[in-house]
């Protein structure tokens, strides 16, 4: 059903409801899985500098023979490139690796700056802690990203892993409202207040880890399994359908052709089943599947009621 479904962005353009995730896809797997996904019909591809596969994804897009204008390609500014003098350089490097002359969406990956250390994306102190860059604030990084829009090589800019608190701060200085906030979203971590805030401010949300990521506890949840049986579909298709029915785009990742095919189909859930899935967090203690604050000063996820549900 979702193969042709899209959501409208505040830029006036659209984003396909089901995208294709590529985190943890090793370069060869990324090439093969993206090519498979494109053949199946996916046109929305999500990558990032941090995933170390932009080059192979660019090659897969090119080798698919599908015209560029049919795609919606997202990549992200990594934390070591937050300094205003590095934003445009990082952006151009991503474009070159992807062999594209424009991006559909460029996101700030995290609201958190690390010091620049060349190819080292995780600069660490001897004690193992990330070396943060306290000289730059994410509002300054974002202002530099806004200039990329003027340059015409990106259609939309957005953020990722932004809490309500950080969005409020950003909106005080932003000239361009972020088109998208990409965050972890699934029934164990629905972030209802964050979604409400984004909806109220015309910021579309993309849900990452919609299946609950690797070795997902959600896929083994009996309620999810029972609902899947009722519709004669798989647990993955139920989780994807729930995400889309909330108005969020979803970007499931797989390197397995049969799953790539399976994940490109959603169904319409009856309200009763949608509600059951939405209430899973109340009975299940497991919430955030990707807990990652990068030792960062800026609050990302945690004990803030504003970001809780
Ligand atoms: N912005 C951010 O900070 C951020 C953070 C995390 C993720 N993301 C994005 O969101 C994407 C999705 O998140 P994710 O990769 O964490 O998790 P996910 O898509 O929720 O789950 C991926 C895992 O589920 C397995 N899988 C996929 N389809 C399946 C199916 N139909 N049945 C059973 N298992 C299935 C995959 O295995 P196989 O691959 O072995 O098939 C993989 O282990 C990422 O790839 C990335 O593009 C963004």
Describe the model.
Substrate binds at residue 109. Pfam families: Aldo_ket_red (PF00248). GO terms for molecular function: oxidoreductase activity, acting on the CH-OH group of donors, NAD or NADP as acceptor. InterPro entries: AKR, Aldo/ket_reductase_CS, NAD(P)_OxRdtase_dom_sf, NADP_OxRdtase_dom. Residues 18-277 form the NADP-dependent oxidoreductase domain. The chain is α/β, with parallel strands linked by helices and 309 residues long. The chain has a single domain, classed as Alpha-Beta Barrel (TIM Barrel), CATH 3.20.20. Helices cover 36% and strands 11% of the residues. The protein contains 11 helices and 9 strands. It has helices at 27-40, 54-64, 84-98, 138-151, 164-173, 192-200, 222-231, 235-245, 257-262, 271-278, 280-283; strands at residues 6-8, 14-16, 44-46, 72-77, 105-108, 157-160, 180-184, 204-208, 249-250. A 7-stranded parallel β-sheet has the order 3-4-5-6-7-8-9. It has a two-stranded antiparallel ribbon with strand order 1-2. Strand 3 (44-46), helix 2 (54-64) and strand 4 (72-77) form a beta-alpha-beta unit. Helix 1 packs parallel to helix 2 and helix 7 (222-231) packs across helix 8. The longest helix has 15 residues, at 84-98. It is globular. The two termini are 29 Å apart. The chain binds NADP nicotinamide-adenine-dinucleotide phosphate (NAP). NADP nicotinamide-adenine-dinucleotide phosphate (NAP) binds at residues 21-23, 46, 109, 160-161, 182, 208-214, 219, 234, 236, 251-256, 259, 262-263, 290.
